[in-house]
Amino acid sequence: MTKMMSNVKTIALAAVIGAATLMQSGKAEARDMQTITVAGGCFWCVEADFEKVRGVSEVTSGFTGSTVSNPTYRQVVSGGTGHYEAVEIEFDADQISTGQIYDLFFRSIDPTDAGGQFCDRGDAYRTAIFVSNTAQQQAAEAAKAAAQAELGRQIVTPILQASAFYDAEDYHQDYYKGTERLITRGGIKTKAEAYAFYREGCGRDARVEQLWGSDAPFIK
Fold first, then answer.
1. Which of 60, 95, 168, 206 could form a disulfide with 172 if both were Cys (CB 3.0 to 4.6 A apart)?
2. Cα–Cα distance between 184 and 215 in angstroms, integer?
């Protein structure tokens, strides 16, 4: 029965993953646009994942979870502000529900790790869900309980009250598909190539697949 329920969950989650080009086609007008905020380690990776989801119109990389105003990327990753690297996900609730997005989120991270994510360690890379109303709170709690039951391990990702969200510098937005050329440890690469090199080297997909297996929605 547990295996059957897991398979059903996998099919249901897979159904909400669509090509980014389809979700941007504009053939259907959005009717109920909503925004949620999550932190899942490197915001480049979370942005890249959720911009593939049908019904998601925009994902913005930024910082939240602290009272320090207008932080810079360098300030945040140095650990001096208490912010999380996070993303705002804008979506059409007529195409995908808040709960479905939270389900996808838990299965795209390591929610058992309280010290960061994958190779990225420290407070800036902790996971969290930030809620701004009762409906989000209830959906987040339900998704967390379902993920914990499926994984069979304690999930440490907290559900926190939303606070001010600050957009990261333009340099970080849509990093995963950038064409600007950079000098990296692996040689001269475009942003997109550097992102792919980083993501593989950091072990994100390998760890997510180890935890979630076929229920990991963004594993190729």
1. 168
2. 33
Q: Tally Cβ neighbours within 10 Å of residue 82.
A: 14
Q: Which residue has the tokens 């980083």?
A: 198
Please compute Rg for the chain using Cα positions.
Answer: 17
In 3-state terms, what secondary structure has residue 17? Answer: strand
Domain ranges of the chain: 2-215
Catalytic residues, by residue number, are 42
Strand 120-121 and strand 187-190: the pairing is: unpaired
| CATH code, residues 2-215 | 3.30.1060.10
pLDDT (tens digit per residue) in 98-136 = 999 999 999 999 999 999 999 999 999 999 999 999 999
Instruction: Classify strands 84-92 and 120-121 as parallel, antiparallel or unpaired.
Output: unpaired
Q: Are 21 and 60 in contact (CB under 8 A)?
A: no
pLDDT at 177: 94
CB 53 within 8 A of CB 18: yes
- The answer to whether residues 182 and 194 touch, using CB atoms and an 8 Å cutoff, is yes
End-to-end Cα distance, the chain: 27
pLDDT digits (tens, 9 = 90+) for 26-83: 444 648 999 999 999 999 999 999 999 999 999 999 999 999 999 999 999 998 899 9
Q: Are strands 159-161 and 127-131 parallel, antiparallel or unpaired?
A: parallel
Q: What is the pLDDT of residue 204?
A: 97
pLDDT in tens, 179-215: 888 877 777 889 999 999 999 999 999 999 999 999 9
- 44 in Cβ contact with 172 (< 8 Å): yes
